[in-house]
Write a structure and sequence with these properties.
mainly alpha
Length: 134
């Protein structure tokens, strides 16, 4: 195995760890601050009126996906699910990108590297084998 292949594997692992950290915080938010999760779903996804306690179940589902993503179980599906979650989190607040210097809108731009990493990890899933189940 050449140095460039080892570097690729290490790079993909580092990206996977980074994406897992962000996703884990999003999951934990649903357990520790379900009111915030409800406000986000209402404000950005137009899904208001969802009972806060239902976000625990959403958090459980997302936690399973994130663990599968990190460990490398069902790579195609777990990475696709993470990619779709990252896409939703990045693309839904599109209006914030049109007015970046108002309020905290500039912080929304931090979602783009996360989205890019999720795309790379999905596309390169067969090469991402370091500390992975497969």
């Amino acid at each position: 195995m050449g140095t460039s292949h080892k570097n690729l594997e290490l790079s993909l692992l580092i990206l996977r760890i980074g994406v897992t950290i962000v996703m884990a915080v999003w999951v934990l938010d649903k357990f520790f601050n379900p009111g915030h999760a409800a406000a986000v779903f209402g404000g950005f996804y137009g899904l208001s009126g969802i009972a806060e306690n239902l976000f625990v179940f959403v958090g459980i589902a997302q936690a399973v996906i994130v663990v599968c993503f990190f460990v490398g179980i069902a790579k195609f599906w777990s990475r696709l699910a993470v990619l779709l979650m990252a896409a939703a989190g990045t693309l839904t607040p599109f209006a914030k990108y049109l007015d970046p210097f108002s309020g905290p809108n500039i912080l929304f731009f931090a979602a783009w590297p996360m989205f890019a990493a999720a795309i790379v990890l999905f596309l390169m899933r067969d090469s991402d084998t370091l500390v992975s189940r497969v």
